[in-house]
Amino acid sequence: MKIVAGNSNLPLATAISKELEIPLAKGTIRRFSDMEIFVEISENVRGEDVFVIQSTSYPANDNLMELLVVIDALRRGSARRITAVLPYFGYARQDRKPAPRTPISAKLVANMITAAGADRVLTMDLHAGQIQGFFDIPLDNLFAAPVFARDIKARLTGDKPITVVSPDVGGVVRARAIAKRLDADLAIIDKRRERAGVSEVMNIIGDVKDTRCILIDDIVDSGGTLCNAAVALKDQGAQEVYAFITHGVLSGGAVARVTGSPLEKLVVTDSIQATDAVRGAHNIEQLPIAPLMADAIERISNETSVSSLFD
Ligand code: R5P
C-alpha cells in the first residue's frame, strides 16, 4: 500500500501515515510560473494499492486540480488501484439545480475524479448521502458521529441534561444518530422566511429550556446558520450551547462570528486544515480523525468491512 499526500492538509496526511506506519510516498508537486500544476511521483507505484489524501477545501479549485493531476500521474505509473481519499469533499453542496440554468457541480466533480483514473473514493459525512450515486465507482462515506459521541460523553455528559439539536430540517438524520448514541433528547430548528425581504423566523421544535444544547451539522462555512441557531436556543432558555460540526470550512468572517457568538465551544474535525485564525480562536477546537481514516484505509486495502467500523 502507498499513501500519497496532496498539499491541502499535510498535517492530516502525516497523521494518517503515522497511524498506518507507512511513510508518505516521495514526490514533488510544483507550479509552473503560470500556476499550472506539475506532479512527479519519485517512487515506483506499479501494481500498488495507492491512497491519495486530498481535501477539496480552500483554495477548492487548486486543490481539486492537484488531486486530478496526482491521480493521472499514478494511473500512468501503472498503480493497481487508486483510492481518492477526500476527508472533505468540496463542491458537495452543489448537488441539485436550485434554479433553472444552474450546474450540478457535485456530479461534474465526481465525473472528473472518475475520469482522472480513481477506482474508489473514501470520504466523510457527505453533505447528502445520495451524492454517493454521483460516482459510478465504489464510495465509502465515513461518519464523524463516533468521534463526536466519544468526546461529548467524556466531557459534556453527567452533570446537565443534554439536548442534541439539528440547526435545520435537512440535518435531522445526522443529529438523531448522535442523540441515539448519547441517549439524549432531540430538537430541530425550523427556519422560515414568510415573505422575501422579511427576516427569518426560527421555530424550535422540542424543549431546550435549562438544558445543554449540542448542535450537530456537516459544514460550518460562514457560521451564519450556526450562530443564529445558538442565539435562538439561548432565547428559548438553553443553559449552554455547544456545536460539533464535521467540516470547518470557516470562510470569510466566520471565525469572528463564532468567537462573538454565545457558543461555549465549536468543535470541528481536522478534515480541513485549521487556519491561524481558527487555531487562535478561544472557542474553536479540532478533533483528530486520522485514527478513523487510517482504520478505513486499512480495511479497504485488506478488503474487509468498512461499515462495521460504525456498529
Ligand atoms: C446546509 O445545508 C449545511 O448543512 C450547513 O448548515 C451550511 O452549509 C452552513 O453554512 P453557513 O455556515 O454558511 O451558514
Could you give a quick summary of the protein structure above?
With 311 residues, this protein is α/β, with parallel strands linked by helices.
Structure notes:
Helix 1 packs across helix 9. The model has no long low-confidence stretch (mean pLDDT 96). The chain has 311 residues and is of the alpha/beta class. The two termini are 26 Å apart. It folds into 2 domains: 2-143 and 291-310, Rossmann fold, CATH 3.40.50.2020; 145-288, Rossmann fold. The protein has helices spanning 10-20, 60-76, 105-116, 145-156, 172-182, 224-235, 254-259, 276-280, 290-302; strands spanning 2-5, 27-31, 37-41, 49-53, 81-86, 120-124, 139-142, 162-166, 185-192, 201-205, 212-220, 240-248, 265-269, 284-287. The protein is built from 9 helices and 14 strands. The structure holds ribose-5-phosphate (R5P). Ribose-5-phosphate (R5P) binds at residues 167-168, 170-171, 217-226.
